[in-house]
Each structure stands twice: as structure tokens, then as C-alpha cells.
Amino acid sequence: MSGMAELLHKLGFIISGSDMNSSDRTKDLNNLGIIINEGHSQKNINGADVVVYSSAVKLNNPEIIAAENSHIPVIRRAEMLAELLKVKPISIAIGGTHGKTTTCSMLGTILSEAETNPTLVIGGIVNKFQTNAISGNGDVIVVEADEFDRSFLTLQPTMSLITNLDLEHLDCYENLEDLQEAFIQFANSVPFYGKVGICIDNNNATAIIPKIKRPIVTFGLHKDAEIMASHVKS
């Protein structure tokens, strides 16, 4: 949420938010001019045009209830993220059970070093930028696609990437097949002219390839990958 708040602020929107506890990140946002209230209260939404909430927030939250009672649109984080993808002609959503933040950071750094001036919204602080959101004037936006509560199915990127698939979030998915089906939908949400990147080092990810109806590019350490990493050093 903090990365999205920072990006929207940089795009010229008036942003405020609330969190139960103050942190270094909320202090950073305050320093940018974003008002972060400590604690949740209906007064925090006064004057808001839309209220965006994360998966961690329950629907009985006083701010959500107040917004609904005032007929202010209430949307999930992924729904706002989907709108941000429309800002750039090339949108890349990184999904997978593990490694999303790391992959987003690597891709954002590569694109920046290539002087493409990317826009980036991820869940962790990138060393190169010392933030989890940058607003570039280039054609590419890179975002992290969180599979929790299936909210990533709201996104419609021009390119998607799947790092790996392992059974997690048992409160959202019945079994591995249920998780794989969600990622098949995620991959097929890419337009016909887009691309889907899949790491073939992971058998669970490789297994969904036959059900994907979009152009696929494989990557990984495996010798059969179309884009293969070699001579990797930690």
C-alpha cells in the first residue's frame, strides 16, 4: 500500500492513509507530504473521493463502514493497482508464490540501468532507489501481483511473469490445483499481443503451460529455458 500511495502522490493525487502503528515507512510518507493517521477512524476519510483497502483490513473497519454509508467508492488495493497499469503502454506484473519482490527489484534495477525510466510499485524497498515506488517517464510499469485472496486476477497487464508455484494461503485455496487454476487465469488475462514468462525450474509452474493461451517465454537455470541464467554467483 505504501508504494502505491507514494506513486499516486507523485502522479499528483492528494493521498492520505491510516495505519495502526507508526513506522519508518509511514514517517517517510509523511515527509513526502502524505498524511498518515495513526489508528483507524471514520474522520480519516473526510473529503475522500475513494477509499482503498488492503487484504489485511476487515470489512468491519470503521473507515470502510463510514465510506459506504457516505456512498464513497470502496475498492481493494488490486483494483487501484489495475488502474495504475493503464498509465503506461507496457505493464509487467510479477506473480508467484516466492520471489516476487526480489524479481521486481531486479527487473526495476535492470530497466533503470538501461535508462528506460521505469515506474515501479512493489512490496519491499529497492536498494538502488531506497523506496518501493518510483515514477518514471518511460513506457514501462512493473508491479508485484499478490495471489492472496485472488486479488491479482483483477490485474490485466500486457506481460505477466510467474516465478514458481507452491501451496500457500490455504485460507484462500483448497489445494495446489486450485492455486494453479488461479495462475492460469492470471496468465490468460494478458492480451493476445502480450507475453507470459514462466520459470521452468519449478515443476508446479511448468505444469500449467499447456493451459495457457498466450505467447510464452520460459526462463530459469534449466538448459531448456529460452532465457537461461548461467555462471550465477551469490
From TrEMBL:
Q: Which InterPro entries match?
A: Mur-like_cat_sf, Mur_ligase_cen, Mur_ligase_N, MurCDEF_pg_biosynth
Single GO MF annotation: acid-amino acid ligase activity
Which residue ranges does the record assign to the Mur ligase central domain? 94-231
- Residue span, Mur ligase N-terminal catalytic domain: 1-86
Record-linked PANTHER family: UDP-N-ACETYLMURAMATE--L-ALANINE LIGASE (PTHR43445:SF3), UDP-N-ACETYLMURAMATE--L-ALANINE LIGASE-RELATED (PTHR43445)
Q: Could you tell me what this protein is called?
A: UDP-N-acetylmuramate--L-alanine ligase
Q: Which organism is it from?
A: marine metagenome
